[in-house]
Amino acid sequence: MHVSAAIFYAKDGYDTRGKRLLGRQSAGEGFLKGWVRYSNAETLYCFTESQGTFHDFCHRIRPWSDRKRSLMWLNSNEPTSIVQAGALYYPAPGLGEWAWKRRFADQRTYSLCGITHTTATKAVMSAVGDLLIAPVQPWDALICTSLAVKQGIEQLLDSWGEYLAQRTGSKPPTNVQLPIIPLGVDTSAFLQGGEALTTRREFRQQLGIAEEDLVVLFVGRLISYAKAHPVPMYLAIERAARQANQRVHLIQAGWFESAHDEDAFREGARRYCPSVNAIFLDGRRPDIRANVWSTADIFISLSDNIQETFGLTPIEAMSAGLPVVVSDWNGYRESVRHEVDGFRVPTLLPPAGTGSDMALDYFLDRSNYGAYVGGTSLSTAIDVEACAEFLLKLMQSPELRQRLGENGRQRAREVYDWRVVVAAYEDLFLDLARQRASQPMAVPCQRDRHPYPLSDDPFRAFAHYATDILTPQMRLKLGKMASSEARAKLFDLWTNNIESERRLSSEEIDKLLAIVEACQPISVGEICQQWQIVPRSIHSVLLYRTISYLLKFDVLALENSNFQLS
């Protein structure tokens, strides 16, 4: 029974080396590295559009592979190739498209597995809603990285299902599974012991930070409206630093979307935490991403954005042994145990119904996505005073920092290390394989119905356009253009050869005409019998299309060409 999966690979989704480092890319790279290192699969399947992209995949994973395994390219233009792997891992929620593609074959032969990152965009919400309409099966899954995400997905599906019930009289079931599997980290990649102390000393020297000074660290994209508004953090750190009576530095390691963002962050730091030394580092640089953790004493992330779903940086901080101060917000609420690994700062939202105009403007494109999530962020309150109190406790107690940091490190190893997370993926793939073998199929294909009704067979969708339909009973004879010379001139013109691969070959056309010439008039059904063509087979399809094609140019003719017009 398959416990593997084909990885849908597009470089952008798994590469953190670009100018715009996004959370989904960091998560994607981490997953791919973890899958290569810890999966039990004997073959690693890459599902992508070209062999060139497959070669990039092979090059990408080579440094992470410590044992010999075969690598196999599965062409994404041929969805049935996924059968070899047993499942498709698609790093987004949009499983509907792939479910429709699978429907053209045996829907029971493989599973589909997507994952949630941000769920606030119109595109993602539409893709999730499509799960109630698309032919997803009980052996498919949309992984939710946190309970908060699962609750949001369930709420969206429930609301959309209620609408469909009003519209059609029945609420469709949610066939797809919604397991919770968190994002992972490579806990072994974070420096510890003497190596961490050496890096801490050297990095602090480069930044002009004394050993006895305190460093608070934020890691992430430096953008107020799409990640975390910095002012509550600045206010809280300033209050705590003044009471701690100790030199405090705030390192913000990330990157700015624009010069406008950079000006706002730098001015905000000067204005709202003037007694704190604000340091900005380019978090896209691998050396900074690797070493900055050892430099810090406390990690902080006051996420207030609805596009956040899990929050990977607190897990990375915990892996580095740092105590964390985070907002009590979606995935953070599950990963950080209050007063065990760090502190969670209370948050507050306006009541339901007070954002309907924001949703409408976003839907109508009167405001863009940045304005939509930014407006929501500015109405998300962070308890600044509580945050300051938590920071002060940590600033004043090295022992507390040590204890919470060690708790967090242990939790990261036990729950979020890729070795643990990949095992959860493999358990899921195994369960999906069992479901394929046992569960009844949802919406099986019906005979004489196209697998995707909105892109039907044109000869069925537009059958009413024609005077008549070619049937097995219709009798054929040679037309006036049947001679080899006339046909050569016909077939020499490019406009007469469009989509020629969808008809019989030239040799097969010669054979067809020979049969008609020997027995004319002869019915289409009799031709099939002589040729031993199985009804509904691909050869049968090609034959019928070719006969109509030859009738078009008078190479063949109907015995009785006087159609009865209605």
Plain-language structure description:
There is one protein chain. The chain has helices at residues 23-38, 51-61, 96-102, 122-129, 147-168, 193-207, 231-244, 259-272, 286-295, 313-319, 332-335, 356-363, 369-378, 384-396, 398-416, 418-438, 458-461, 484-492, 506-519, 524-531, 538-552; strands spanning 6-8, 43-48, 70-75, 87-89, 111-115, 141-143, 214-219, 248-254, 277-282, 298-301, 324-327, 342-345, 347-348, 381-382, 475-478, 522-523, 556-558. It has 566 residues and is of the alpha/beta class. It folds into three domains: 6-183 and 423-438, 3-Layer(aba) Sandwich (Rossmann fold); 188-416, Glycogen Phosphorylase B (Rossmann fold), CATH 3.40.50; 466-558, no CATH class. The strands form four sheets. A six-stranded parallel sheet has the order 3-2-1-4-5-6, with helices on one face. The protein has a six-stranded parallel sheet with strand order 9-8-7-10-11-12, sandwiched between helices. Strands 16-15-17 form a three-stranded antiparallel sheet. α10 links the parallel β10 (298-301) and β11. The model has no long low-confidence stretch (mean pLDDT 93).
